[in-house]
Amino acid sequence: MTTPIPEWAPRDARGVCPHLTADDASFLRVFRPGRRTFDYLCEPCAERAPAAENRAGTDLALASAEDVERLEREGSWEGVVGFPGAIDGPDRLALLRRPADVRLDGFRAAVPVVDAPGERWIVACDDMLLELDGRTGLTREITAIPLDSQDKGANAELVVACDRAGRFVAVAQAKGRHGAVLETASGRVSMRLDRGDYRVRNCEFPVAFADVAGRTVLVHATAWNRLDCSDPSTGANLTHRASPGPRREMPVDEHYLDYFFCGLSVSPTGRRIVSDGWMWSPCGVLATWDLQAWLTDNPYESEDGPTRRELGPRIDFWDAPRVWLDDRRLAVWGFGVDDRMHDGVRIFDTESGTETDWFPGPVANLATDGTLLYSLRPHLAVYEIATGLRLLAEPDFAARARHPRTGRLLAIDDTGRVEFAEVTDPR
After folding, report:
1. Per CATH, which fold does 94-424 belong to?
2. Greatest CA separation found in the chain?
3. From the CB of residue 208, how many other CB atoms can be counted at a distance below 10 Å?
4. How many CA atoms lie within 13 A of 365 on its CB side?
């Protein structure tokens, strides 16, 4: 696959080694201490680079626009040397913490209910789904997790999703075959999910809710290389189409997709969706497309439609932490090549497929308010998206999730102790 040249490369590139003259040259990005700027170096020069400066012993030419174009388009990025950690900006934010008088033993997963009054959370604990009121700390049992014992074992990670209004919850074993959808008011199981058994342990169960043109839909895998949209209240399929046959059949069906759908994320207003999936050899590929076009114009939009874009190939690496910054921009954890990743995010314009920016520091459980990016684990850090600067670091606090409407963070430690917190600007 061919991807556009990162928009940040001409901005951040400084020097280029004199040995990188071939069109197909292999290069490393060698960073300058504590900065986002880097030099293009061949491997021998990178090995000789003084540790203090991360610079080659030989003179470097200024990286011209032509150098950047040639290396990024025709060359091969082989890795990173001297990757910077988080770059601190002004220490202007504070964390206000409020312990709650509730314990959630056997915690497994939590998701916010975006559009409900007050502050509601759906929480999975042991074999039970609960509703947690973030204002009062009170909980309500919804129902036992509606999966067979082999799908919800104590050591099995769960994927939990709910619609914006909190009417439906989907729960599935992250690395398993089955899932279920239920109504939160009654506990009734409205759908059973089955993605088949082909290499399910290699990727997260794909399931997500979206509101499209005023209608709540569930996007879920029905095979390793197929997603469908369904009505969560009835299970009715909204994306009917014939399934392409195996690649070995000749001629190969025009819609055949050699791609494993994995973890899904929906943009804030339900405009686009992304799958952080993979294809052989294996190579991780972020695939994104327009949800309304899929539902109303082209049932094959998820396979090869005109709005589908493939972003940032990563050898042997997929299902990374990710978050939508708005309906176009997606931030994805991991700066590097293959599976040699460093803590940071890359930002993509999902409509053009262009990588627009990056910055170092964020780790996992990413969340955002559109201006700030929150890295919730293994400890809280908050970054300004426009500059990439870290504005807050709390080494003794880690959160499970952030409520996008109230802005509050939900923390649950290994003993089940619950704490809420919010990031404030005391100026």
Report:
1. Methylamine Dehydrogenase; Chain H (2.130.10)
2. 71
3. 21
4. 20
Non-local (6+) Cβ contacts of 409 within 8 A are: 374, 376, 380, 399, 401, 402, 403, 420, 421, 422, 423
CB neighbours of residue 55 within 10 Å: 22
Please give the chain's pLDDT, 427 residues, in tens: 566 899 999 999 999 999 999 888 999 999 988 899 999 999 999 988 654 455 544 589 999 999 999 999 999 999 999 999 999 999 889 999 999 999 999 999 999 999 999 999 999 999 999 999 999 999 999 999 999 765 555 457 999 999 999 999 999 999 999 999 999 999 999 999 999 999 999 999 999 999 998 999 999 999 999 999 999 999 999 999 988 766 666 566 778 888 999 999 999 999 999 999 999 989 999 999 999 999 999 999 999 999 999 997 888 899 999 999 999 999 999 999 877 899 999 999 999 999 999 999 999 999 999 999 999 999 999 999 999 999 999 999 999 999 999 999 999 999 999 999 999 998 7
Domain locations in the chain as residue ranges: 9-81, 94-424
Q: Pairing state of beta strands 322-324 and 309-315?
A: unpaired
**Dist. CA 120–CA 403, nearest whole Å:** 9
Q: 46, 124, 108: which is closest to 83 by C-alpha?
A: 46
pTM (two decimals) = 0.93
Element (H, E) at 355: strand 354-360
What separation in angstroms does the CA of 53 have from each of 43, 215, 262, 335, 343? 16, 56, 40, 21, 21
317 closest CA partner among 203, 198, 174: 203
- Helices and strands (DSSP H and E) totals, the chain: 5, 32
Torsion angle (degrees, nearest 10) of CA 374, 378, 397, 330: 10
Torsional sign, CA 87, 72, 371, 118: negative
Give the other-Cβ count within 10 Å of 124's Cβ.
Answer: 23
| Cα(244)–Cα(253) distance, integer angstroms | 6
Conformation bin of residue 253: beta by default, left when phi > 0, alpha when psi is -120 to 50? beta
* C-alpha closest to that of 147 among 160, 132, 162, 131: 160
Alpha helices in 263-349 (DSSP H): 291-296, 301-304
For tokens 């972020």, the residue is 286
Instruction: Output the six-digit token pair for 422.
Output: 């919010």
